[in-house]
Amino acid sequence: MYSIVGKANRVINNVELVPDPALTAGRKQQIKGEASFIRAYANFDLVRLFGDVPLVTQEVRSISAANLEEIYPLLFPDRVSADHVYDQIIADLEFALGTLGITAPDKGYATAGAVNALLAKVYATREPHLIVVNDNDGDKTFGIKFNGRVAEASLPGGAVGTFVW
Q: What global pTM score does this model have?
Protein backbone atom coordinates (compact mmCIF):
# COMPACT_ATOMS: atom_id res chain seq x y z
CA MET A 1 0.00 0.00 0.00
CA TYR A 2 2.80 2.39 0.82
CA SER A 3 4.31 1.90 -2.63
CA ILE A 4 1.02 3.20 -4.05
CA VAL A 5 1.11 6.15 -1.64
CA GLY A 6 4.73 6.84 -2.60
CA LYS A 7 3.98 6.84 -6.32
CA ALA A 8 1.00 9.14 -5.80
CA ASN A 9 3.20 11.47 -3.72
CA ARG A 10 5.78 11.50 -6.50
CA VAL A 11 3.13 12.63 -8.99
CA ILE A 12 1.56 15.20 -6.66
CA ASN A 13 4.93 16.72 -5.72
CA ASN A 14 6.45 16.77 -9.22
CA VAL A 15 3.74 17.30 -11.84
CA GLU A 16 4.20 21.08 -11.68
CA LEU A 17 7.89 20.63 -12.62
CA VAL A 18 7.11 19.04 -15.99
CA PRO A 19 8.27 21.54 -18.66
CA ASP A 20 6.14 20.15 -21.52
CA PRO A 21 4.20 23.10 -23.02
CA ALA A 22 1.47 20.72 -24.23
CA LEU A 23 0.69 19.89 -20.59
CA THR A 24 -1.67 22.69 -19.62
CA ALA A 25 -2.18 23.97 -16.08
CA GLY A 26 -5.68 22.47 -16.10
CA ARG A 27 -4.35 19.05 -17.09
CA LYS A 28 -1.68 19.26 -14.37
CA GLN A 29 -4.41 19.95 -11.80
CA GLN A 30 -6.39 17.00 -13.13
CA ILE A 31 -3.34 14.74 -12.82
CA LYS A 32 -2.79 15.93 -9.24
CA GLY A 33 -6.48 15.27 -8.53
CA GLU A 34 -6.23 11.73 -9.85
CA ALA A 35 -3.09 11.09 -7.78
CA SER A 36 -4.80 12.59 -4.70
CA PHE A 37 -7.73 10.21 -5.22
CA ILE A 38 -5.37 7.23 -5.45
CA ARG A 39 -3.45 8.33 -2.33
CA ALA A 40 -6.72 8.81 -0.43
CA TYR A 41 -7.94 5.36 -1.49
CA ALA A 42 -4.71 3.69 -0.33
CA ASN A 43 -4.67 5.61 2.96
CA PHE A 44 -8.32 4.70 3.51
CA ASP A 45 -7.50 1.01 3.17
CA LEU A 46 -4.53 1.40 5.53
CA VAL A 47 -6.47 3.22 8.25
CA ARG A 48 -9.35 0.73 8.08
CA LEU A 49 -6.97 -2.22 8.35
CA PHE A 50 -4.54 -0.92 10.97
CA GLY A 51 -6.02 2.17 12.66
CA ASP A 52 -3.19 4.54 13.57
CA VAL A 53 -0.65 4.39 10.73
CA PRO A 54 2.29 6.44 9.44
CA LEU A 55 0.99 9.20 7.18
CA VAL A 56 3.31 9.79 4.24
CA THR A 57 2.71 12.89 2.10
CA GLN A 58 6.22 13.62 0.83
CA GLU A 59 8.39 11.53 -1.46
CA VAL A 60 11.86 10.29 -0.63
CA ARG A 61 14.11 11.69 -3.36
CA SER A 62 17.56 10.32 -2.64
CA ILE A 63 19.40 8.81 0.28
CA SER A 64 23.00 9.56 1.19
CA ALA A 65 25.06 9.85 4.33
CA ALA A 66 24.93 13.64 3.98
CA ASN A 67 21.14 13.87 4.07
CA LEU A 68 20.31 10.93 6.33
CA GLU A 69 19.19 13.18 9.19
CA GLU A 70 16.75 14.90 6.83
CA ILE A 71 15.52 11.76 5.08
CA TYR A 72 15.15 9.50 8.14
CA PRO A 73 11.73 10.87 9.21
CA LEU A 74 10.49 10.33 5.65
CA LEU A 75 11.77 6.75 5.60
CA PHE A 76 10.42 5.84 9.03
CA PRO A 77 7.57 8.22 9.86
CA ASP A 78 5.82 8.04 13.21
CA ARG A 79 2.30 6.73 13.47
CA VAL A 80 -0.40 9.36 13.60
CA SER A 81 -3.93 9.05 14.91
CA ALA A 82 -6.63 7.59 12.70
CA ASP A 83 -8.46 10.94 12.92
CA HIS A 84 -5.43 12.70 11.43
CA VAL A 85 -5.29 10.15 8.60
CA TYR A 86 -9.02 10.59 7.94
CA ASP A 87 -8.52 14.37 7.81
CA GLN A 88 -5.84 13.89 5.13
CA ILE A 89 -8.05 11.47 3.20
CA ILE A 90 -10.91 13.97 3.21
CA ALA A 91 -8.57 16.81 2.17
CA ASP A 92 -7.23 14.71 -0.72
CA LEU A 93 -10.73 13.76 -1.86
CA GLU A 94 -12.02 17.33 -1.66
CA PHE A 95 -9.05 18.50 -3.74
CA ALA A 96 -9.72 15.72 -6.25
CA LEU A 97 -13.42 16.60 -6.38
CA GLY A 98 -12.54 20.15 -7.43
CA THR A 99 -10.24 19.02 -10.24
CA LEU A 100 -11.90 15.96 -11.79
CA GLY A 101 -14.73 15.94 -14.28
CA ILE A 102 -17.97 14.01 -14.24
CA THR A 103 -16.83 11.85 -17.12
CA ALA A 104 -13.40 10.69 -18.27
CA PRO A 105 -12.05 10.30 -21.81
CA ASP A 106 -11.27 6.62 -21.26
CA LYS A 107 -11.81 3.89 -18.70
CA GLY A 108 -9.39 3.82 -15.81
CA TYR A 109 -9.48 7.54 -15.00
CA ALA A 110 -10.83 8.84 -11.72
CA THR A 111 -14.04 10.86 -11.97
CA ALA A 112 -16.06 13.04 -9.64
CA GLY A 113 -18.49 10.15 -9.19
CA ALA A 114 -15.72 7.87 -7.92
CA VAL A 115 -14.51 10.61 -5.59
CA ASN A 116 -18.01 11.20 -4.21
CA ALA A 117 -18.52 7.46 -3.69
CA LEU A 118 -15.26 7.12 -1.76
CA LEU A 119 -15.97 10.30 0.21
CA ALA A 120 -19.36 8.89 1.23
CA LYS A 121 -17.70 5.65 2.31
CA VAL A 122 -15.11 7.59 4.33
CA TYR A 123 -17.80 9.61 6.11
CA ALA A 124 -19.82 6.44 6.79
CA THR A 125 -16.75 4.66 8.19
CA ARG A 126 -15.40 7.45 10.35
CA GLU A 127 -16.57 7.62 13.95
CA PRO A 128 -19.03 8.83 15.14
CA HIS A 129 -21.56 7.44 12.71
CA LEU A 130 -24.78 8.90 13.99
CA ILE A 131 -25.65 11.76 16.31
CA VAL A 132 -29.25 12.36 17.44
CA VAL A 133 -29.83 16.08 17.05
CA ASN A 134 -33.45 16.64 18.03
CA ASP A 135 -36.47 14.68 19.31
CA ASN A 136 -39.75 16.53 18.73
CA ASP A 137 -42.93 14.64 19.65
CA GLY A 138 -41.42 11.29 18.84
CA ASP A 139 -40.18 12.35 15.39
CA LYS A 140 -36.43 12.08 15.68
CA THR A 141 -34.24 14.24 13.52
CA PHE A 142 -30.77 12.85 13.20
CA GLY A 143 -27.60 14.18 11.69
CA ILE A 144 -24.17 13.05 10.79
CA LYS A 145 -21.63 15.73 11.60
CA PHE A 146 -18.05 15.91 10.36
CA ASN A 147 -15.92 19.06 10.46
CA GLY A 148 -18.94 21.34 10.58
CA ARG A 149 -20.77 19.59 7.75
CA VAL A 150 -24.23 18.31 8.57
CA ALA A 151 -26.53 15.83 6.85
CA GLU A 152 -30.03 15.70 8.34
CA ALA A 153 -33.15 13.58 7.83
CA SER A 154 -36.41 13.07 9.71
CA LEU A 155 -37.71 9.79 11.11
CA PRO A 156 -40.13 7.93 11.18
CA GLY A 157 -42.05 9.93 8.56
CA GLY A 158 -39.34 9.21 6.02
CA ALA A 159 -39.06 12.81 4.83
CA VAL A 160 -35.48 13.57 3.91
CA GLY A 161 -34.08 16.89 5.06
CA THR A 162 -31.29 19.05 3.75
CA PHE A 163 -27.82 17.64 3.18
CA VAL A 164 -25.10 20.26 3.43
CA TRP A 165 -21.59 19.25 2.33
A: 0.75
